[in-house]
């Protein structure tokens, strides 16, 4: 039996824009999960962050020196909003929209200091 001919190797580098988007999305998902404690709610927060970024006018996007910093700041504000408006607590547990119970998040008063942080 003859060995199968090898395919030519793929280029070792991916487009830099693609790599940057994947890296920042992973960063945002990890941060949101750590803040919210739910992968599903974290994914919602990351999507909302990207919606705000891509619906922003081009001239405003151009004024931002570090898009990753803007995305992280916006994501943190979205997560704080979600924590402050979380579902009612029952017996120390929070029931999210999917009906899954998880430990109750910290008191919203703890997150109120984040509201005063200037936008980046």
UniProtKB/TrEMBL annotation:
PANTHER family: ECF RNA POLYMERASE SIGMA FACTOR SIGI-RELATED, SIGMA 19 FACTOR
GO biological process, one term: DNA-templated transcription initiation
GO molecular function, one term: sigma factor activity
Keyword vocabulary terms for this entry: DNA-directed RNA polymerase, Transcription
Keyword Cell membrane assigned: no
Signal peptide extent: none
The keyword Kinase belongs to this UniProt entry's keyword annotation: no
Organism of this sequence: Plantactinospora soyae
Pfam families, per database record: Sigma70_r2
Gene3D superfamilies, A to Z: 1.10.1740.10
InterPro entries (UniProt xref): ECF_Sigma-70_Domain (IPR052704), RNA_pol_sigma70_r2 (IPR007627), RNA_pol_sigma_r2 (IPR013325)
Entry protein name: DNA-directed RNA polymerase specialized sigma24 family protein
Entry GO CC: DNA-directed RNA polymerase complex
Segments forming domain RNA polymerase sigma-70 region: 23-85
């Amino acid at each position: 039996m003859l060995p199968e001919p090898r395919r030519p190797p793929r280029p070792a580098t991916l487009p830099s824009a693609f790599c940057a988007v994947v890296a920042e999305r992973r960063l945002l998902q990890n941060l949101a999960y750590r803040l919210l404690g739910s992968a599903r709610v974290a994914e919602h927060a990351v999507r909302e962050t990207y919606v705000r970024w891509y619906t922003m006018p081009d001239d405003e996007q151009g004024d931002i020196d570090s898009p990753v910093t803007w995305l992280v700041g916006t994501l943190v504000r979205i997560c704080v909003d979600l924590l402050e408006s979380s579902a009612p607590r029952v017996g120390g547990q929070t029931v999210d929209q999917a009906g899954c119970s998880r430990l109750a998040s910290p008191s919203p008063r703890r997150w109120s200091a984040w509201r005063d942080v200037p936008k980046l």
